[in-house]
Amino acid sequence: MKIVDILKPTFWKVVAVLIITSGLTSAYFRFSLGLGATTNLRDAVPWGLWIGFDYLCVGLSAAGFTIAATVHIFHLKKYEPLLKPAILTAFLGYSVVVGLLVIDLGRPLNFWHPLVMWNIHSVMFEITWCLICYTTVLLLEFAPVILKKLNLTAPIKLLKFISTPVVIAGILFSTLHQSSFGSLYLIVPKRLHPIWYSSLLPVHFYISCIAAGLSMIIFESYYIARSMTKDEGFSNTGLKMEVLSGISTAILAALVLGFLLKLNDLMENGKLVYLTKLTQESVLFYLEIIIGTIIPIYLLGFGNYRNDKKWLFITSIFVLSGFILNRLNVCVTGLIKSSGYNYFPSFDEISITLMLVVIAVIAFRAVAKYFPVFESEHDTEKLGNRGTNIIQNN
Amino acid sequence: MLKEYGILFDVNLCLGCGSCYEACKEANNLPETNDDFLKDHLSESTFTVVEQYGEHFARKLCMHCNEPACESVCLVGAIKKSETGAVVYDADKCIGCRYCMQACPQKIPRYEWGSTNPRIRKCILCHTRVKAGKLPACSEICPTEATLFGSMEKIIEVAQNRIKNNPENYYPKIYGLEEAGGGHVLVISPVPFEKLGYTSDIPKKSMPEFTMQAMEKIPGVVMGGGVFLSAMYWLTKRKNQIAKENNLNSQGKN
Ligand code: SF4
Ligand code: SF4
Ligand code: SF4
User: Fold this and answer.
1) How would you classify residue B98: left for phi > 0, otherwise alpha for psi between -120 and 50, otherwise beta?
2) Mean pLDDT across the stretch A356-375?
3) Of the ranges A372-381, B10-19, B133-142, which one carries the lowest mean pLDDT score?
């Protein structure tokens, strides 16, 4: 691709440039004026969009560890084409999380304190360390893709040698912090609305991130395959129907399990009454469950939808929307009533968040374009054919 | 080692004079925030307030919990229970994550939102004064012993006696003794505490226990998970190998 091509303006490029410029401006104001002047946070609402968004990115990155486990630990090789996109997604997701966390810190210059000042009783402490360790793991897992392209074989060998313990560590770190994000809210029993507050929050979080993470992979494979090749469906991402139906079964299982657990929790703790009244909370909860759980279970439960790529893509959008609603409910809307203050993010909060998302998307596309992230048998076959052609021509 | 001290606030004895409010501002170098102290709220510049409910006055301040939620969630240990019983804050450690604000069941900690290097602000039970052998500013100035400072045993005893000797004037409960596992600020009053704006639906057990349940499981998850994953790794690899060998064998036969 020539420079001229990169600079050629398209609609999305213009939008991206606008978003990044406004995000940078907002970031400048945030650091020079402080949180009070640039966000809608206040004493009653100390956490807002940024923390909520961190929750989303962490959950959507969950495919990184589930696919790594499937391929490397359970040796289900047919899922291998998913591995690299999942790890790349996770790595970029976590980069957004780290970026937002630092921006959200009131005293950002002290960001390194958790490395040397420890309070091992703090859930936040555990999460911070898991994030640091897991991002390192992701880097180690993804490094071979880059190194291969650069023809550096020596480090690849070393990475291969340590790969199994690295994968196991990665799965453990993920399990811990995915669930710990739920534990963060265990300390607010009377403030988070009872529809969402539960001593099982960590378990709910863990199960729902599996469904969401896998849906994310379906979603982005479809999107990348279409936007990069203009091909129908997933044909350029090495995703065969067999692989897709495998993940969709896993998604279905996670959704059903999560739903039963939630139902059980609501019944056992006498919380069903909250669902009989029409409140902002109950409406949001119904939305979350219908969009994110009931509709996808229905769609995935029928073979003809499950075996259709387009419907799978649509299902993934449902699961993802429900997941986003759930996380925002737990960390923003579920707390509104007890804070007595209606929070809506400020322009600067939104524009900084959008900027990080756009940067992550650009990075994903760039890496997917220049490195063999979506390397499929289809491609290798083509290459192979070309190879023989060349030989024959000679 | 210093003994643990606390404050007893008696609604029956409070005149609503606001001396504690003024004294706290002066002792902590806090700017004036409202002409009428009865209309003021807790903020980064106001560590205690006196609120009027009909003929009664109620003071609000940090409860200095025995096992503070704010301390347990702070990942860098910027909030600590000191040996005087006060829950104190070290701005040099704080990273400004505001988890302490989210976690406090009394919604006490405030934040310097206007600053680019903000601190968490709240009553510190005049911890330096107490260590130097002085009384907290608010209790030193109180003209009626409505705000009384002393060792925990002492103030609990005083509170119990006041209730026992004067049952018709007191609601039979000491607020702060059990809330969130108990703390170092106790309140007694003639009416139920919710009527005076004290948060009533606070769990009895100490707040850190809510997260401890989950945190305790971590070592088990790590050990069990590690063993399980390693075993699965080995097992499935072996299974694939056997399958391959079988394949080869059967191919060989054909
Ligand atoms: S009342 Fe709140 S701020 Fe005060 S010690 Fe307890 S948890 Fe911490
Ligand atoms: S804001 Fe500061 S004191 Fe409060 S929990 Fe975070 S680091 Fe600790
Ligand atoms: S103990 Fe000290 S800091 Fe706390 S309210 Fe009284 S004067 Fe203010």
Assistant:
1) left
2) 84
3) A372-381
The minimal CB distance from A175 to the residues B42, B105, B221 is found for: B221
CB A118 within 8 A of CB A168: no
Which residue, judged by its Cα, is nearest atom 6 of ligand 2? B97
Determine whether the interchain pair A42/B215 forms a contact, defined as Cβ–Cβ distance below 8 Å. Answer: no
Give the residues surrounding ligand 2 with Cβ less than 6 Å away.
Answer: B 73-74, 76, 78-79, 94-100, 120
User: Is the CB of B109 within 6 Å of ligand 1?
Assistant: yes
Q: How far apart are CA B176 and CA B5, in angstroms?
A: 14
Q: What is the pLDDT of residues B170-186, one digit of tens each?
A: 998 999 998 998 899 99
Using the predicted structure, report yes or no on whether residue B111 has a pLDDT greater than 90: yes
B187 touches chain A (CB under 8 A): no
C-alpha B45 – ligand 1 centre gap (Å)? 17
- B88 strand-pairing partners: B80
* Nearest ligand, CA B184: 1
B/e letters for A49-76, b = 16+ CB within 10 Å, e = fewer, are bbbbbbbbbbbbbbbbbbbbbbbbbbbb
CA of B81 to the centre of ligand 2 (A): 14
Q: What is the model's pTM?
A: 0.86
| DSSP string for B130-162 | HHTTPPPHHHHH-TTSSEEEEEHHHHHHHHHHH
Residues in chain B: 254
Closest listed ligand to the CA of B112? 2
Distance, in Å, from the CA atom of A178 to the CA atom of A56, rounded to the nearest integer, reads 11
Nearest alpha carbon to residue A117 among B93, B171, B102, B253: B93
pLDDT at B120: 95
Q: What is the pLDDT of residue A2?
A: 57
- Whether the complex's predicted ipTM is more than 0.90 is answered with no
CB contact under 8 A, B73 and A187: yes
Q: Quick one: which of B105, B132, B108 has its CA closest to B122?
A: B108
Mean pLDDT of A237-246: 72
pLDDT of A201 strictly over 80: yes
CA distance B96 to A104: 8
Indicate the helix (H) or strand (E) that contains B87: strand B87-89
In whole angstroms, give the CA distance from residue B42 to residue B45: 8
Of A180-194, A219-233, B130-144, the range with the lowest mean pLDDT is: A219-233
